[in-house]
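cron nightly-structures :: item 1 of 1
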Amino acid sequence: MAIAYIVTAYLAGLWLMLSDTVVFNVLGIFIFAHAMIIAAYLIHDCAHYSIFKNNKYHRYLAEVLLWICGSSYSDFDSIRHKHFRHHADNADVVSFDFRVRILKYPRLLKIIRFLEWMYIPAMEIVMHALVIILPFVKDSRKNFRVRIITMLLLRTLFFVALASISIKILILYPVSYIIFLIVMRFMDIHQHTYELFETLDKERGSEAKKFDHEFEKTNTYSNLISIKHPWLNLLVLNFPYHNAHHEHPIRSWHLLPELHKELYGSDEAQVLHFRDLVKSYHRYRVARILNEDEINLPVKEMKENFIGVDGVSFLTAH
C-alpha cells in the first residue's frame, strides 16, 4: 500500500504540476511533496531491512525511492551505513561537521540565517548540496564521482523533458522540494539529544562504546503529530514513534503504534507534544543552525525551549 501510494502520488503530483490550471498546480505541489516524504521514510525502513525477506530487494526499492526523493546522488549502502552508525553508536555520526566550518564563511552564514528567518530550509539545502560537492573535495569519497556525474546528467535531462511540457515545473518542483525538506527536518530536529562525531569515514573509535542502551532510551524522543488521533502519524509513515523504533529497529513502520502502546502504554515520559515542537521550530529557526544540544537535557521541562539540531537527516550520507 505504501509503495502504491508513493508511485500514484508521485505521478499524480507531477501531472498536476504540469497542468495549465493554477489550482491543479498548487494541489500538485503538496501531493508531490507528500510522495517524497513517504518515499524517504520507506527508505528508512529499507535501511533496517524491515520490508522484504530477501535483503537484496531493499536495495532495489531504495534506489528507486532515492530518485523520487531527489537524493539519488547517495547510494543505498552509504545511507544504510550512516544510519547503522547512528543506531550502533547512539550518536550522530557524520564525515563533515558544518558547524565547525561555516563560521569561516560569515557572508554565507549571514545569507543562510536570512533564508532560515524566511522559513526557507537553507541549511538543509546546503547539506544536500554537499552530498554532490564533497566527493570532488574529499579523497575518501571520490568513488562517488561517477555516480554523481551520471545522476546529474540524468536528472538534467529529466527536468529538460518536463520543462518542454511546462516551464512552470522549474518553479513548482523546487517549491514542492522545499516543503519536503521542511517536513523532513521538522521530524528530525527534536528526536535526540546525542553527541555529534565526525568519524563516519573512519574506523569506529571511542564513541562506539561511549553510550549504552539506557543512554539511548533517555536521549531519544517520540515527537508524535497526535497522541489522541494516532492515524495522523501515518502522514509521516509513523516515523515519530521513535523510541519504539530504537527499541526494535527492524519492526516495520506499520507495527510501531502497537509496539509503542505495548512498551509505554500511557507513559509519556519520552513523548514530546506537537504544539511545543511547532513553537520551538518557529522560535529557534535561526539559532538552531549552529546549535548542539547537550546530552541528558531535561527536555520535557523545557517544552518549546528545546532547540534541537539541524543537519542530521539520514538522507544526507556524509
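cron nightly-structures :: done
The mean pLDDT is 95.
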